[in-house]
Amino acid sequence: MRNYEVTFIVDPILSGDDVKGTAQKYVDMLTAEKAGIVHINEIGLRQLAYPINKRQSGIYYCVEFEAVDGAFIGKVELALRRDEKILRYLTVSLDKFGAKYNADKRAGKIGVTKKKERKPEPEQRPERPARPERAPRPERPERTEAKVAEPVPVV
């Protein structure tokens, strides 16, 4: 069995039922071609990197499936290309590492951040140790005015 993943972006102006119906249409098409659906990830509404058909956002879906061979993928991609509700799509063949990564991500081993435990704050702050006293600055000698020589008369 080979693992595949198809990600597609649905037009966001559709109603919620139309969006889910469009995604279900392609899932049904895959199951009709004897592909085993591993996971369906509705990523949701996201901002697009650049405008597509004057749209700034789209609803992302990612369908991971297994199949004996990928002979029917061209048929699915043709349907995706012809559908006006789909802005973009991408079909990828996963190697064993990609399939393991997706399985680990679904299991929560990857991409989950652990919250740091907060240290309990002491009720009172500890007093700071006293600073050592500095030695007084040495006094500067007083400035004296420089004596200006008197001009010598020119004769």
Name the beta content range. Answer: 25-35%
Count of DSSP H/I helices: 3
Mean pLDDT, as a whole number?
87
CATH architecture field of the domain at 2-107: 2-Layer Sandwich
Intertermini distance = 119 Å
Cα-atom radius of gyration: 36 Å
Shape field: elongated
Helix percent reads 25-40%
The CATH topology of the domain at 2-107 corresponds to Alpha-Beta Plaits
Count of strand segments? 4
> In sequence order, what are the helices and strands, one letter per element?
EHEEHEH
What are the low-pLDDT stretches, counting only 5+ consecutive residues below 50?
none
Biggest sheet: strands, sense, closure? 4 strands, antiparallel
Can you summarize this structure?
This protein is an alpha+beta fold. Helix content is 25%, strand content 31%. The chain has a domain at 2-107: Ribosomal protein S6/Translation elongation factor EF1B (Alpha-Beta Plaits).
What does this structure look like?
The chain has 155 residues and is of the alpha+beta class. The protein has a domain at 2-107: Ribosomal protein S6/Translation elongation factor EF1B (Alpha-Beta Plaits, 2-Layer Sandwich), CATH 3.30.70. It has 3 helices and 4 strands; from the N terminus they run βαββαβα. The chain has helices at residues 16-32, 73-82, 96-107; strands at 2-10, 36-52, 55-67, 86-94. It has a 4-stranded antiparallel sheet. A hairpin with a 2-residue loop joins β2 and β3. The termini are far apart. The model has no long low-confidence stretch (mean pLDDT 87).
